[in-house]
Specification:
This protein is α+β, with helices and mostly antiparallel strands and 202 residues long. 34% of the residues lie in helices and 26% in strands. A 7-stranded antiparallel beta sheet has the order 1-2-6-7-5-4-3. A hairpin with a 4-residue loop joins β4 and β5. α1 runs antiparallel to α5, α3 runs antiparallel to α4 and α3 packs antiparallel against α6. The protein starts with 8 loop residues before the first helix and ends in a 14-residue tail after the last strand.
Length: 202
């Protein structure tokens, strides 16, 4: 069983990715995910290229309830992002271990009041985005995946931070109504595993 902490949205995303429901939905677009065996995640180039351009309108989603709360998680572009996480995070097991716990992160230098969360192992960052921002990204996402395929396999240099998932997360209290409803972007932490002396916000 995958643990869910009601005030840590990354754990809800992890619950989705570890679920049998996610595996069943991914199978509909030709992606095999075994929730009973989460190790590994190695993919060949041909499979990666296919997934990065696969099923642009496909969304994986899951709803479940526990202890007076109703949870809902929706993953946009589930297949291409699954391929990117497999490539950059070393497999599904690493992703799920990271997503299990998170803390609020007071990121500095930004121009918005967006909420940031960081996984306890520092590997991943979750950033809140507005609905209009999410809509814009969903519109140009196919071009992003095409570009990332060139970065991966055609040696195209890139300084873009890697987006690893787009989600809508909702937590509802059965007594009081909505507690949390946000659109979020899962991305790499550029500082993970690195020793940084100075940081410049450009």
């Amino acid at each position: 069983p995958y643990p869910v902490v009601d005030d840590e949205p990354t754990s809800l995303i992890g619950y989705l990715l570890a679920s049998q429901g996610y595996a069943d939905q991914m199978r509909q677009v030709g992606v095999e995910v075994d929730p009973e065996r989460i190790e590994g995640g190695a993919m060949g180039e041909a499979e990666h290229r296919e997934l990065l351009m696969a099923a642009p309108s496909f969304r994986a989603e899951l709803e479940f309830g526990s202890r007076g709360f109703q949870f809902s998680v929706k993953a946009f572009y589930a297949a291409p992002f699954h391929a990117l996480r497999a490539k950059y995070c070393g497999g599904q097991d690493n992703v799920l271990a990271s997503l299990a716990r998170c803390v609020k992160w007071a990121a500095t230098g930004g121009k918005t009041d967006s909420e940031f969360l960081k996984t306890l192992d520092d590997r991943l960052i979750l950033k809140e985005v507005q609905k209009v921002e999410m809509g814009a990204f969903l519109e140009f996402a196919p071009s992003y995946f095409e570009y990332m395929m060139r970065v991966l396999y055609d040696d195209v240099p890139s300084l873009l931070v890697k987006f690893l998932g787009l989600y809508k997360v909702e937590i509802r209290s059965r007594e009081s109504g909505v507690k949390y409803r946000k659109y979020v972007v899962l991305m790499e932490n550029l500082f993970y595993g690195k020793s940084i002396d100075k940081v410049f916000d450009l």
